[in-house]
Write a structure and sequence with these properties.
Largest sheet: 6 strands, parallel
Strand content: 5-15%
Shape: elongated
Number of helices: 13
Order of helices and strands: HEHEHEHEHEHHEHEHEHEHHH
Distance between the termini: 27 Å
Low-confidence stretches: none
Structural class: alpha/beta
């Protein structure tokens, strides 16, 4: 905030300031006071979801009308040919799920594993492929899998995959699954949706926004293994290919870089018109 204040004095009143939220929480103490002071010089705050702004509106942002819903990110991924994707990844079958994310507490792989254990009783051919870079909880996860025959058969620990190859995994798998308790945006969800991989994700603000309140994916409460297991069992009623196309088309029409750019241009025009 201090640098922003100095910059505002340097460039003058006509320069508009737009601040992008990336999952941060408001500062406390002296830094928090500077944030409150800097708020008067900020014209717009960009949040993936208005609900991500709740803590900021209570503490820093005096005028909630300055908060704007604009996605933080998108992807150039697109759906790849199925047979080629299956050959590259080894992912086959109808009920295959893909985890892409760090193995840390905030991503909550334990809830996903607990739910998948219950689900595998009903759907023994279901598979969960886990791609990850951070291995903080890998030892605990391996222990859980080694002590559970169903999970030992159903869960495949893939590890690190080059980003350029991830589109094949999203294209081969029918479902993307996440246990995240908070996300500023959710890059992996966007990548999955771009490839028509159906999101099965937590009902946190950014995921609710990206799936249009669950119209283009399935939502469950963070940490709710029983709720997730019930959701997974109901997927038997889903026309998977039709739903994949629905997700892919929604991404293209609403979540692409082009859409984000259009929203930012619209905001800039609005801010410019106010100073004339």
């Amino acid at each position: 905030p201090l640098q922003l204040i100095f910059l505002k004095f340097s460039v003058g009143k006509r320069c508009k300031f737009i601040v992008r939220h990336h999952g941060e929480n408001p500062f406390r103490g002296i830094k928090g006071l500077f944030q409150k002071f800097a708020d008067q010089y900020i014209d717009s705050y960009l949040f993936t979801s208005f609900n991500n702004a709740a803590e900021w509106k209570n503490v820093v942002i005096k005028d909630p009308g300055k908060c704007v819903e604009i996605l933080e990110a998108s992807t150039n991924f697109s759906r790849q040919e199925l047979l080629k994707s299956q050959a590259i990844t080894g992912v086959t079958g109808m009920y295959n799920f893909l985890w892409v994310g760090r193995l840390i507490k905030g991503k909550d792989p334990f809830t996903v594993l607990a739910a998948f254990d219950q689900y595998a009783r009903q759907q023994p051919d279901a598979r969960l492929y886990m791609i990850y870079q951070d291995e903080e909880l890998l030892g605990d996860i391996k222990k859980i899998i080694s002590q559970n025959k169903r999970l030992g058969q159903a869960v495949k620990l893939i590890g690190k995959i080059d980003n350029k190859d991830l589109a094949y995994w999203y294209s081969a798998a029918n479902f993307y699954i996440s246990g995240s308790h908070s996300e500023a945006a959710g890059y992996a969800v966007l990548e999955a949706m771009a490839c028509g991989c159906i999101p099965v994700v937590t009902s946190i603000p950014s995921f609710v926004k990206m799936t249009h309140n669950g119209d283009y994916g399935f939502l469950y409460s963070p940490g709710d293994a029983i709720g997730l297991a019930a959701l997974l069992k109901n997927l038997v009623n889903v026309n998977i290919e039709a739903y994949r196309s629905k997700v892919e088309n929604y991404f293209r029409e609403h979540l692409s870089f082009k859409n984000i750019a259009a929203d930012i241009i619209s905001l800039c025009k609005e801010l410019y018109s106010k100073q004339r």
